[in-house]
UniProtKB/TrEMBL annotation, chain A:
Pfam families: SoxA-TsdA_cyt-c. Its EC number is 2.8.5.2. Belongs to the SoxA family. This is SoxAX cytochrome complex subunit A. PROSITE patterns: CYTC. Binds 2 heme groups per subunit. Keywords: Electron transport, Heme, Iron, Metal-binding, Periplasm, Signal, Transferase, Transport. Heme c 2 binds at residues 201, 204-205, 246. Gene3D superfamilies: Cytochrome c-like domain. Residues 79-165 form the Cytochrome c domain. It is found in: Periplasm. SUPFAM superfamilies: Cytochrome c (SSF46626).
From TrEMBL, chain B:
It holds the Pfam family Cytochrom_C. This is Monoheme cytochrome SoxX (Sulfur oxidation). PROSITE patterns: CYTC. Transmembrane segments: none annotated. Residues 46-152 form the Cytochrome c domain. It comes from the Bacteria.
């Protein structure tokens, strides 16, 4: 398409920052971090997922953005991983404990943990993501205040925890507790048209993935890279922040972070991406 | 009593937040027949120059989010969720274009992803600031339609 090509060219020239120019894709490239850790960015979809192949958002980004993620020295998200490790080892709260006081060395204890969330939490009677699990540990075991949504420490610690599963396949166990009914509810939300623009998640990420919606190349909207370093914000973006952003873009009221509605959506959307490798901290535009 | 006067009373009792101009048809009263809306929804003719602005404005039509359009090639980033609109004015009559822009679901069916720009049939949980409002006013739709008729092969 002629006009698209010239728009892409103009983007490169005008913005100077070519990472904001149009991306191609989904590209046929492999993501290998630091030449060592191979990440599964394409895999056969789990049974019931409405795609033959599930694909990572990484494949839809520009060459420059992809390169940033493949090099952990250049990936700005790695600073948050470091900060997260510090928090893991820092005493906080009335009980005088750190995460490490109970769990020991983070790199050992956390291997694979983040790849298996959300998980059923029997005590709360609902699925927990990493952020909710951190807050429960802080309150019950450290006698510390729960983090406020999207506080810098919450994002850093979550990023650190997920990064300990780098390259491991994302999976969620729907046999736990009442997970299946949360999955059902999440699916319902995923296909519900919302807002003044009257669009559902599926309208963009299922029906139109691979297409351009203005400057953005629509991916399948998978969650294996979260929290994500977003160049636009120059900051880490949590999954519930992203969900709320997509919902706001339809001109709908967005639900509270960690509300039942968004936790159900997290369970369902995580399942859609089953088998993709954890990329945290992924880099997106 | 004129037709326009009756319409404006109807609109007022529906408590539309957009000021109802005399002669403007309320969103729910637009008559779609044969994939067309036969007459101007405001009684006025559209202004293609303003329509071009509304078309490109991200806070108004934001049509480039989904459609490429060579006439606006100086604007960055044309989407390809919908077809290119080059030649749309040759493919469709003005009455059909009015129906497409006012409420695309009436022409393409409920499954289309194209929003209805002059319709109050919207999705779940509409944000408070947009409640009871249409994306474009009736006159803005007329202007966009006038602009689209200029996109001929």
């Amino acid at each position: 398409m002629l006009s698209l090509k010239s728009a892409a060219l103009a983007g490169v020239i005008l913005s100077g920052l070519s990472s904001f120019a149009l991306a191609g894709g989904p590209v046929d490239e492999e993501l290998v971090i630091d030449g060592e850790t191979q990440i599964t960015t394409r895999t056969k979809a789990a049974e019931g997922v409405p795609f033959e192949e599930v694909t990572s958002g990484w494949l839809y980004r520009t060459e420059e953005t992809r390169a940033l993620e493949a090099d952990s020295f250049q990936n700005p998200g790695m600073l948050y991983v470091e900060r997260g490790e510090e928090i893991w080892n820092t005493v906080d709260g009335e009980a005088g404990k750190s995460c490490a006081s109970c769990h020991g060395d983070g790199q050992e204890f956390l291997k694979g943990v983040g790849a298996a969330y959300p998980k059923w939490n029997a005590k709360a009677g609902k699925p927990f993501n990493i952020e909710l699990q951190i807050n429960q540990c802080r309150e019950d075991n450290m006698q510390a205040k729960p983090y406020k949504f999207d506080s810098a420490d919450q994002k850093a610690l979550t990023t650190y925890i997920k990064n300990q599963s780098l390259g491991m396949p994302m999976h969620v166990d729907l046999a736990q507790g009442d997970m299946q009914s949360w999955w059902d509810r999440g699916k319902e939300t995923y296909y519900t048209r919302m807002g003044q623009l009257n669009l559902s998640c599926s309208n963009c990420h299922e029906e139109n993935n691979g297409n351009y919606i203005r400057a953005d190349h629509l991916s399948q909207g998978n969650v294996n890279g979260f929290p994500t370093y977003r160049l636009k914000q120059a900051d880490m973006v949590s999954l519930h922040n992203r969900f709320r952003g997509c919902i706001r873009d339809t001109r709908a009221e967005f639900p509270a972070a960690f509300s039942d509605e968004l936790m159900a959506l997290e369970v369902y959307v995580t399942w859609r991406g089953t088998g993709l490798g954890i990329e945290t901290p992924s880099v997106r535009q | 009593m004129t037709r326009g006067f009756i319409y404006s009373i109807a609109a007022a009792t529906l408590a539309l937040s957009a000021p109802a101009m005399a002669g403007t048809v309320a969103p729910g009263d637009v008559v779609f027949a044969d994939m067309s809306v036969a007459t101007s929804m405001t009684g006025e003719t559209g202004d293609p120059a303003n329509g071009r602005k509304v078309f490109a404005d991200r806070k108004k039509g934001n049509c480039l989010a989904c459609h490429a359009n060579t006439d606006l090639k100086n604007e960055l980033f044309h989407g390809d969720v919908g077809p290119s609109l080059d030649g749309a004015g040759s493919r469709w009559s003005p009455e059909q274009l009015r129906a497409i822009v006012a409420n695309s679901k009436q022409v393409f069916g409920d499954q289309t992803v194209m929003p209805g720009f002059y319709s109050l049939v919207v999705g779940k949980d509409i944000a408070k600031e947009f409640e009871g409002k249409t994306i474009l006013s009736a006159q803005e739709v007329e202007d966009v339609v006038a602009y689209l008729t200029t996109l001929t092969d």
